[in-house]
Amino acid sequence: MGDDDLALWASGLVKRFGGRRVVDGIDIAVPRGAVYGVLGPNGAGKTTTLRMLLGIIEPDEGRRRLLGHDSPREASDRVGYLPEERGLYPGMKAREAIAFLGALRGLEWRTGRKRAETMMEAAGLGHAVDQKIRKLSKGMAQLVQLLGSVVHEPEFLVLDEPFSGLDPVNQERLEALILAERDRGATILFSTHVMAHAERLCDRLTIIAGGKARFEGTVADARATLPWRVHYVPHHEHEGLAALLPADAARASDGWRFVMPDTGIEPLLAKLIEAGHGISGLSIERPGLHDAFVRIVGREAAEQPA
Amino acid sequence: MSGTRRIIRQTMTVARRDFVATVFTPTFLLFLLAPLIMAGFGAIGGLGAATMADSRDRRVQIVALAAPEDGARLVAVDKRLRGVFRERDAPPPLRVTTPRADVAAQARALIDSSDIDISAVLYGPLEAPTVLYGAQGARTASYLVELADQALRIDSAAGAEPVARATRIAVARETASIGGQGQAAFFTVFGLFFLTLLLAGQAVGTMAEERSNKVIEVLAAAVPLESVFLGKLIGMFGVALLFLSFWAGVAFNIGSLVPPELARGFASIGPAVGMPAFVLLFLAYFTMAYMLLGAVFLGIGAQASTPREIQMLSLPITIVQVGMFGLSSAAAANPGSWVATFAEVFPFSSPFAMGARAANSPELWRHALAIAWQLLWVAITVGIGARLFRRGVLQSAGPKMRWWPRRGSGAVEAAGEAVSP
User: Fold this and answer.
1) Domain range annotation of chain B
2) Section B252-279 average pLDDT
3) What does the alpha-carbon distance between residue B156 and residue B63 come to, in Å, rounded to a whole number?
4) Do B412 and A70 touch (CB under 8 A)?
C-alpha cells in the first residue's frame, strides 16, 4: 500500500514518562476510508499513542505522517478528535460549543452554528440546541462533543474510548454516527477496550499491550489466531467416550468442549455415531474478538481494572 | 473505638493529607522563603522611597533677586531663622541672585526653570517686595516675606508692625516642576504596578478552568499550545484594556469636575515628555508589563494542577511584582543612577522604570529603544512561558526548537513506505 493510500502511518513510536516506556516502538498504518481500531487493556498506551499521532505530545522516538504531513499539526484542520476525557465549557450553549470546536479547526462560526443546529436535530438533540452544557446529561454532552469533533467534516476522525460512559441507546447512536462519518468518506481511528464495538465497526485493528503492538490486521485475522471450538452433547454416554474425543476435550456441565480437530469434525462424528454415543447437541463455535484479544494480550493484562 | 477518638483520628487523617499535600511540593519552598524575598524587595522599595523624598527636597530652592547688600542681610537673617526649624521642617535653601534689568521676567523664568524647582522668588525693594510662588510655594513665599521683614529690622527700631509691605502673586508653572515630575514618576510606577498586579496576576489561575473541565485536551489537539497560551494572554489583555478604559474614563470625568483652585495645586505635577506622549508611552509600557508578567504568570500557573497550588504560587508571584515595584520606585527617585539604569535594562522592571523615566525626562529616543528591547523580551518570555505551559499542561516538552529548516523529508517518505502494509 502506497503512502497516498494511507491516511496515517507511524513507525517506531516511543514515549517515556519518568523513565518508563509507556509506548514502546509502535508502528501503525491506517488506510484511507477505513475504520481502524486501537485496542488494548487499560494502561496499555492507547491514549498516549493517539496523542502522539495527533501531535498533542511529541514522541521521544519514531516518525509519523498524518494526511500527507510529517507534522500532524499541519493537518489539524482536517482532523477531528474526541478525547477520552471529555471537556466542554459548562457555561457555553450546545450550539456555541459545537461551533467553537469547529472554529478551532478553521470552520467559520456562522457555518458552525448552522451545522450544529442541523446535526443536533439529526441526532435527536434538537431540543437542547440552546441549552448550556452544564444542563445536559453526560451522554448528551458527550454526543455534543462528538458533533463538535465532526462539524468541520474532517477527513480523519480520532475517537478515544468514545463509548465509555454511554448507555446502550447512546452507544447505538454513536455507532450510527461513526458509520455515517465513514460513509461520508472519513477515515476513523478509535480506541476502545470494549471488543463488541470493535468487532462491529473495525475494518482493521491493532492490539496494544504494555506499550507494544501485539497484533495488526483485520477482525477476521484476529479471530483466526484462535482455533474454532466444538461443543458436543452425546445422546448416550457410555464408557470409552473420552478415548474417542480429542486429547484436549474437557467435560462441561452440558457435554464436552474441545478444539476443532485438524481433520475436521466429520470423521470424529462418524466414530461417535458408530460407537453408539449419538449426537444430542452439536455446535461449532467461532472464537470472538474478545477471545482473540484475551489470548493476544494475556488474560492478566486483559482483566486489569480500569 | 469511642466516638470522640474516631473523630480525632478522622480529623488527623484529613490534616495529615493536607499537610503532606502542601509541604511536599516545590512551590512550598518558594512560599517558605517568601518573607526573606519580601524583606529584600521591601528594603529596595524603602530605599527607593527614602531616596526619592530626599532627592526631591534637595532639588527645591527659594530665590531672592536682590542687590549684594540686601542679599547679605537676607542670608544673615535666613541663617538665624533656619536654626529655629527642625531639619525636616526647614524651608528650602535660599539662593541670592543679582537682579537683571527685567527682574519680573527673571523671576518668572526662575519659577519655570526646568533644572531646579524654585518654589518662590522675591524681587524688588525689601520694603515693598514682590513674591512669586508656585503651586506648592505659599509657605515658602511667606518665609521670604519674613526674611525681608527681618532684614529691614536689622537697621531699624521698628515696632511690632511688619516693615515690609509685600505683594504676593501665586503663579502656575508652564511646565511640570521637577518635584512634580518625580511625583508623576512615582504615580506612573505605582499605576503600572497596581494595574499589572490586579490584571496580569489573574493569568495565574486561568488554566484552572480548562483543567477542571478537561477542555485543555480539546484545545491542545486542535491548535498549538502556543496559540492557546497566546490566546489566553491576549484575551486577558483585552479584559485589562477594558478595565483600564473604564477607569480612565471615570478618572477623566471626575477630573473635569475638580474646582479650578484645587486643580491649580496639581498643575506642577506632570510628565516631562508632555501629556499626549506620556499617555501613549504609559499604554505601551502597560502592554509590555502585562505581556511580560502575564506570560510568566500563565506559564507558572500552568504548572499548578489544583487550587491549592495556585494559591501557593500566588504569594511568590506577588512578591516578585512587589520587587519590580521597589526597584522601579528607586529608579524613579534617582533618575540617571545605576539603580535606574539597572531597572530600565532589567526586562521585568523595564516597563515600570521607563514609565517613570517618561515622567522624569523629556528624551523620547530612549523609549523607542526600550520598547524594542522589551518587545524582544516579550517574545523570549512568551516563548519560554509557552514551553513551560506545554510542559505543565501535557507533561510533554513539545517539538524541539529549531533555528534552521528541517532537512531530509525524503527519508521520512521512505520510512513511510517501509511500514506500509
Assistant:
1) 25-53+177-394, 60-170
2) 73
3) 24
4) yes
